[in-house]
Amino acid sequence: MSRMYVKYLVLVGLFLSAAGAQAIEFNQVLPDKSSIGFGYKQMSVPLDGKFKKFAAQIVFDPARPEAAQARFDIELASIDTGSSESDEEVVGKDWFNAKVFPTAKFVSTSVKSLGANRFEVQGKLTIKGKTLTVAAPFIFKPDAAVALFDGSFSIKRLDYAIGEGEWADVSTVANEIQIKFHIVGASAPAKK
Amino acid sequence: MNENAQQYTLFAIGLHWWIAILIFITFPLGVYMHDLPLSPYKLKLYSWHKWIGVTVFMFAVVRMSWRASHIPPALPDSLPQWQKLASHITHMLLYVLIVAVPLSGWLMSSAKGFQTVWLGVLPIPDLIGKDKALGDLLLIVHKSLNVSLLVLVAMHVMAALKHHFIDKDNILRRMLPFIGEQS
């Protein structure tokens, strides 16, 4: 009898710890609720755009940020720059050259805590065949079943040769592009 | 101002000619830039067109308040009544258009999702939000108002030249700077 009782306790204990881990680790992205956008300046006029299609994978446990991972694959042709004329232009050769380089990719290399609910993810951003290290601070907001990851960082478009030829002129379209991400993560039952 | 003055004030003359010069630059610019393929050059021209338009708008508002608080120099008595009436109507419409044309452009720019930043430094508020259908409609409004402006300016210029060179009256001189009060 006492042996069965111990077995039962162990089982309950295992179940509880598994449940605990599930509630904390966010390893799914809700694509319809998430967004990846950007801000830029054209002739000093602030403009906003977004990417309508992207795939995102995250694994994030706020208690163990060093184990966190993130990967984003952004379909560049799904860009919405805010003007259809520009949408057609930026998939072209001088800009993204989306026929040859259809996706932009971000793969995290490390995540660290900045205190409170603030973290910083570092990783490799590949656009148009060029890979550079970027760091993006973000705010983590846990909710009942989901968590929000909100952050932004800047890149210089010329570092990736986005806008070549006459478009390399940064007095018209500014070099600095702000990337903003709003990711809604959920936790799925751990896979066996 | 003296009701018997033969000339507009130098301030009013300055505003008139500044607005005239700016319209003579930005009108053809607007016609030319519209069909260009997208390029940094096109984006620059669009911005310059908008900056000049905003400047015209500001001058036009000042000018209308000048007009509201001053009596313009009288037209010659020799002028037939119908010409006085035609002149009055043309001038009122021109005043309306030098405000309405840039205003329609400003609203169109906002509706198309582009704020106007005057000279690249002063952001002009968006009075309406981004709205594609409204933007397309305002483009038609902007074009129609410009065609009306073109017709009225043509009448205005031809009438002024006719009075100066054929009738040889004082009408054009009322608006010419630095000639003093003649006749």
Task: Quickly describe the structure.
The complex is a heterodimer of chains A (192) and B (183). Chain A has 192 residues and is of the alpha+beta class.
Describe this structure in words.
- The complex is a heterodimer of chains A (192) and B (183).
- With 192 residues, chain A is of the alpha+beta class.
- Chain A is 16% helix and 47% strand.
- About 4% of the residues of chain A have low confidence.
- With 183 residues, chain B is mainly alpha-helical.
- Chain B has one domain.
- Chain B has 4 helices and 2 strands; from the N terminus they run αααββα.
- Chain B has a two-stranded antiparallel ribbon.
- In chain B, helix 2 crosses helix 3 and helix 3 packs antiparallel against helix 4.
- Chain B is elongated, with a radius of gyration of 18 Å.
- Chain B starts with 9 loop residues before the first helix and ends in a 17-residue tail after the last helix.
- Chains A and B meet through strand 3 and helix 2 of A and helix 2 of B.
CATH topology descriptor of chain A: Lipocalin
What is the name of the CATH class of chain A?
Answer: Mainly Beta
Rg over alpha carbons of chain B: 18 Å
**Helical segment count of chain B:** 4
Order of helices and strands of chain B: HHHEEH
What are the segments of chain B in which pLDDT stays under 50 over at least 5 consecutive residues?
none
- Measured on Cα atoms, how large is the radius of gyration of chain A? 21 Å
Largest sheet entry of chain B: 2 strands, antiparallel
Whole-number average pLDDT of chain B?
A: 93
Oligomer: heterodimer
Overall morphology of chain A: elongated
What is the level-2 CATH architecture name of chain A? Answer: Beta Barrel
Q: What percent strand of chain A?
A: over 45%
Roughly what percent helix of chain A? 10-25%
